[in-house]
Design goal:
The complex is a heterodimer. Chain A contains 17 helices and 10 strands. By secondary structure, chain A is α+β, with helices and mostly antiparallel strands. By secondary structure, chain B is mostly helical. The chains are: A alpha+beta, B mainly alpha.
């Protein structure tokens, strides 16, 4: 084919190059434009609803630093996007990230250490929450935004009807489940769900588990430790004897079970009123909240399920300004009040948990006017959580292995699932090349 | 390469014009097809090396891995398991779906049928429902606690099978594919049935051939090429099944995160964060699909050219 001349090839190349040059210009202009003149421009990737309104408050008070909120994705999807953007050095200045995603982001070099910029902020948060942003070291990779202390939610009316008492220990919890089965064989106190690893992680934290820790240059995985094994045996035992259900949460069947009173209780976090509102709208006002049952009488601890933080990226050209915004967003009373109102979050800052913004109980729990006062008491007792660089792998393995165990309905299967969970997590770390302590 | 003489500008323009017209398509092909495939190949022979805790700057670096990723992809029991599951699923889906599609096409093509266009539309309609939505709808119908079928079975005092687990899960999953795919395949076969010359059937009828015999002896052999085509599409779609199991997964304990090969690729890439291993698995899957399709095509080509006798 002699007719493909150099000229047409050159033209084609020119078009291609031109196109890349154009896109390059297009995406560059965002972050750095205001560096020399005018206000500092910051972009913030977040998914909390109404975050743009909260940022507007900041923008009105701080004309020198303008924050633009962009809703790219949420949760794990956003983690993938942030890592991709960090590789291309086209990341935003600030990101919202769930606590368990922080080590993954740090290990991909996506987050900046802002320990110097946020000195003195630490005391505004519960130690168990704060620890998640430092990964247990000296660096600070994010500021806590919201937290999800675990609690016990139950149908007050049905508990009275069946003569059940609200359990304060896990032993009592098991007794309550058995008592209910005896009185109403078709009903169940709750279910063991294998499709959300966060709840299981939170329950293990309460028992004292530290799933990822590090010493020197080595990660130590403690998933198959005494604390987590205690939690596994407890729930596995309840499923095996048929005292509770074994089907996953967040399915149409689960919604129906809550809405019709087939399930009487749910171990969940402070954000449960929102979920219950959509899952079980007919039972509004019939639920009540109590502290999470304890392993031993007189103890006072809870774990956390969910919650997110604000982090500054390693690509940010304005780390100091970004850290200033993050501090304002998560500690300033006005900002926190706006976050509660616009985004419906439960703030991690302890002062805000008892502030005016949370004076009124959520609508769904209108029958329990002191909902947030009690929640703040419980939040103080949050046990520390420790996350590692492959939480996602462990979470997926949890769903697969504990799904199998829940299906098998035997205690042995639950024990085997926990062993497999530990092995899979360690094997993945080793395969990736992380230092792993034996 | 000979340079055209200077006076021949016009003919030069005419001769290059086809390439000019090809350019947009070629560019798009390069940018959105060849380039991503090349990148996936490049990724599949690399890996990330991590030092110590893997925290902070410079702790991760991309290094050459050779065929290591391919080795571990092929040796991975999860991958083999997912491939076997999908083959089992395909063994159910493909014959049932194509059998139904052929049956419906022949019925619609027969002379005595009434309400033809309505029936055609009704059979085709499920194909227009996106796979994810179909899976959600069927998922609701399968879940014992909310399913109307289970409600009726309970009223009638009959046993209620759990369709979201074990063996019945394959039936449940196949059912979604058959429901959604039959219409499309039926249209393909039906269209080629309508294109057949009618003289052949008239001659057969004069010879005393029944409708059934016409269908079996004349129509089916003559539409064999479209059967092969639909068979192909179905095999490829089966190997790439992703939407249905992914959508049903949160509803049950019975579907692991690596149920199908593509779910394994997705899982490696986006929850495990290992795009290198995922690329290698994807390449293996693509090669397997290619080899399988090509082998089947060779076999069926030989058959159809002999059988159709055209």
């Amino acid at each position: 084919m002699p007719q493909i001349t150099r000229r047409s090839l050159a033209a084609a190349t020119a078009v291609l190059l031109g196109a890349t040059a154009l896109t390059a210009c297009g995406s560059d202009s965002g972050g750095e434009a205001g560096a020399e003149s005018g206000p500092v421009e910051l972009t913030y990737w977040a998914w909390a609803p109404g975050m743009d309104k909260v940022a507007a408050l900041w923008n009105a008070q701080h004309p020198e630093v303008k924050v633009t909120v962009q809703k790219q994705a949420s949760g794990d999807d956003l983690v993938t996007k942030i890592i991709t953007a960090a590789k291309a050095h086209k990341g935003p200045d600030l990101v919202q990230a769930e606590y368990q995603a922080l080590p993954t982001l740090v290990s991909n070099d996506a987050l900046a250490d802002i320990a110097k910029e946020v000195q003195g902020v630490e005391k505004q948060f519960a130690p168990g929450v704060w620890q998640q942003t430092t990964l247990g070291g000296d660096a600070v990779y994010a500021l806590p935004q919201d937290s999800g202390p675990l609690m016990f939610f139950y149908r007050q009316d049905l508990f009275e009807e069946y003569g059940l008492t609200v359990p304060t220990t896990w032993d009592e919890f098991a007794e309550t489940a058995r008592a209910l089965k005896k009185k109403a064989p078709k009903k169940a106190l709750t279910t063991f769900s294998a499709n959300d690893s966060g709840l299981f992680a939170g329950l293990s934290q309460q028992a004292g588990a530290q799933w990822w820790t590090f010493e020197g240059d080595n990660w130590k995985v403690g998933i198959d430790d005494d604390a987590t094994r205690k939690v596994t045996d407890f729930w596995g035992g309840l499923v095996a004897e048929g005292a509770i259900d074994n089907q996953p949460m967040y399915t149409p069947a689960w919604n129906k079970a809550l809405n019709t009173g087939e399930q009487l209780a749910w171990v969940s976090a402070v954000w449960a009123p929102g979920t219950l509102g959509t899952a079980a709208p007919d039972t509004k006002g019939k639920w009540a909240m109590a502290p999470l049952p304890q392993w031993n009488k007189g103890e006072n601890a809870t774990g956390s399920w969910g919650g997110s933080s604000t982090a500054v990226t390693s690509d940010s050209k304005h780390k100091e300004a970004a850290a200033r915004f993050a501090t304002w967003l998560n500690t300033d009373p006005e900002a926190l009040a706006a976050l509660v109102k616009e985004s419906g979050i439960y703030p991690a800052a302890t002062a805000a948990q008892t502030s005016g913004a949370l004076a009124k109980a959520p609508d769904y729990f209108a029958n329990q006017p002191d909902f947030y006062t009690r929640a703040a008491e419980i939040a103080k007792t949050t046990a520390p959580a420790a996350w590692g660089p492959n939480v996602n792998v462990a979470y997926t393995a949890f769903k697969d292995e504990f799904g199998k165990a829940a299906k098998a309905r035997t205690e042995a299967a639950f024990g085997a699932a926990l062993t497999k969970l530990q092995d899979t997590t360690v094997a993945d770390l080793e395969k990736q090349g992380f230092g792993v302590a034996k | 390469m000979t340079q055209p003489p200077k006076g021949a500008r016009r003919s030069y323009g005419v001769k290059t014009a086809p390439y000019g017209f090809l350019l947009p398509a070629a560019l798009l092909f390069l940018l959105f097809f060849a380039l991503p495939i090349g990148y996936a190949l490049w990724l599949s022979v690399h890996k990330v090396e991590i030092k110590g805790l893997g925290l902070g700057k410079g702790a991760k670096s991309e290094v050459w891995a050779g065929l290591e990723n391919y080795g571990s992809a092929l040796a991975d029991p999860e991958f083999l398991g997912s491939a076997l599951r999908v083959l089992g699923y395909g063994a159910l889906v493909v014959p049932v779906m194509l059998g139904l599609a052929l049956l419906f096409a022949l019925l619609l093509d027969s002379e005595r049928v009434r309400g033809r266009s309505f029936a055609r539309l009704a059979i085709f309609l499920p194909y227009a429902v996106p796979g994810v939505i179909a899976a959600v709808l069927w998922g609701f119908l399968y879940l014992p606690d909310v399913s109307p079928f289970h409600f009726l079975l309970e009223k009638a005092g009959l046993p209620q099978p759990d369709l979201m687990d074990g063996g019945p899960l394959y039936l449940a999953m196949s059912n979604i594919a058959v429901w959604g795919g039959t219409g499309f395949n039926m249209i393909v076969i039906y269209t080629s049935l309508r294109a057949l010359p009618t003289e052949v059937f008239e001659a057969a009828k004069l010879d005393g051939c029944s409708e059934l015999q016409i269908a079996l002896r004349i129509k089916i052999p003559m539409v064999m090429p479209s059967l092969v085509l639909t068979f192909f599409f179905s095999i490829i779609a089966t190997l790439q099944v992703f939407n249905e199991p992914m959508t049903l997964k949160p509803l049950t304990n019975g579907i692991p995160s690596t149920w199908s090969p593509l779910m394994k690729v997705y899982n490696d890439a986006f929850t495990g964060g290992n795009i290198y291993a995922a690329s290698a698995t994807a390449v293996v899957l693509a090669l397997a699909t290619f080899a399988l399709s090509f082998a089947l095509l060779r076999i069926s080509n030989r058959r159809t050219t002999q059988g159709a006798g055209r």
